[in-house]
Amino acid sequence: SGTSVTLDGKPFFVTGVNNHYLTYGSQDEVTRVLDDAVAMGANVVRIFLQPVIGSLDGSVPTIWNWRLEGEASNLAVKGTYLLYWDPSQNRMAINDGANGMQKVDFLIAEAGKRRLRLIIAIVDFWAFTGGAQQMRAWYGSSDESTFFFTDPRTKQDYRTWVRHVVQRVNPLTGLAYRDDPTIMAWELINEGNAQPLTLRLTWTAEMSAYVKSLDSNHLVSSGNANIFDPKLADLTIPTLDFGTWHGYP
User: Which of 130, 232, 244, 246 fits 225 for a cystine, CB–CB 3.0-4.6 Å?
Assistant: First the structure.
């Protein structure tokens, strides 16, 4: 509301934590982290929608070690993937199964039970669990800074993913994601390091408008780190609701 965040007409002061692995953690890991967040006094948790892989048959390579063993906090995804390449259809595919979007359903439902709000980054820029780098690699590109943000195919893949996510109905809550009050905001991409700045701002304006066209209920931000860029550049875009700045002390 204006320059303030409100909830049910009252000021909402964010006390937030960030967790990169909740969308591929086990149910025990998810509930433990959410309980820890509540115990810390947090009311918002920021998460990423990931992982992204190549094709299941290996014909389109996965560019990161998605079979790593261990704890989810150390990037062991335990067979989870949300997006992958389908060589039989020659296009991106979405995993709605138990090792895919159903894990996100569980996370959102459990956060809601604890009255936690979620900031959800729609994709990660970095290749730690695939992200935008895996999506450009589907098309044989090694360009890490511009291809994802300019190629018509990756831009359409991103829009397809956005539409699928915001329109998805969570069977555990009965709510479409775009109608779920547990979700506080969408972030377009975690630290989308497009170069030059004009490209990043153009892409951000285009995709934030697209998200808003599908979901008018939730806030939208860029998710950019804004470490080297002009600190207020994002706030010139009318379809962004708040700025983001990442600190690495």
Answer: 246
When mean pLDDT is compared across 34-38, 185-189, 244-248, the lowest value belongs to 244-248
Contact between 139 and 154 (Cβ < 8 Å): yes
Residue 62: band (very low, low, confident or very high) from pLDDT cuts 50, 70, 90? very high
Q: Please provide the average confidence, as pLDDT, over all residues in the chain.
A: 93
Q: What is the pLDDT of residue 1?
A: 64
Residue 65: pLDDT band (50, 70, 90) is confident
Pairwise CA distance, residues 159 & 149, whole Å? 12
Say how far apart CA 52 and CA 115 lie, in whole Å: 29
Measured CA angle at 166 (ends 235, 57), to 5 deg: 110
Residue 248: its pLDDT value, please?
77
Quick check: helix, strand or coil at residue 165?
helix
Q: Report the C-alpha dihedral over residues 120, 49, 115, 183, rounded to 10 degrees.
A: 40
φ, ψ dihedrals at 223, nearest 5°: 80, 5
Burial classification of residue 135, based on how many CB atoms lie within 10 Å of its CB (0-12 exposed, 13-18 middle, 19 or more buried): buried
Residue that is written with structure tokens 């929608």 in the block:
49
| Statement: the pTM of the whole predicted model exceeds 0.85 | yes
Alpha-carbon gap, residue 37 to 18, rounded angstroms: 10
Task: Give the residue extent of every domain in the chain.
Answer: 15-220
